[in-house]
Amino acid sequence: MIKAAATGLGSGFVPFAPGTAGTVVGIPLYLVFARFPWPLYLLSITAFAFLAVYVSGEAEGLFREKDASQIVIDEIAGLQFTLFLVTPTAWHMLCGFLLFRFFDIIKPFPARLCEAKCPGGYGVVGDDVVAGIYGNVVLLAIIRFFGI
Fold first, then answer.
1. In the chain, at which end, N or C, are there fewer CB atoms within 10 A of the end residue's CB?
2. 84, 45 in Cβ contact below 8 A?
3. Sign of CA dihedral 58, 6, 84, 32
């Protein structure tokens, strides 16, 4: 059960860009959460992030590697923060997906610090939540100022 959750139902095992594959798995979850009233939506993605912390920590033991590339539940959680309060349209999801991957790869402050200094699952998921928040701010700004 831990391995299935940590690997995004196996998407973390794809040979090329497992983080990107895992992020794709986050889209159906977003479509569920986006239907909730915003307080329940925020509570749900926060609870999912804490579940991801637990699962990631356990999975590091299974894979015997810190932040193993097969662990993608952190990307699934991070994407939820990027798409928070964003209307579920194909364009918004594509932009959110690309922004999240961009910020997850470049790891702006304090994402890299979270990854390096936080123990276990907190380090695995923390950088993705930070990347997700950066993605959300930029995505909401794009939607607001460009009307997409």
1. N
2. yes
3. negative
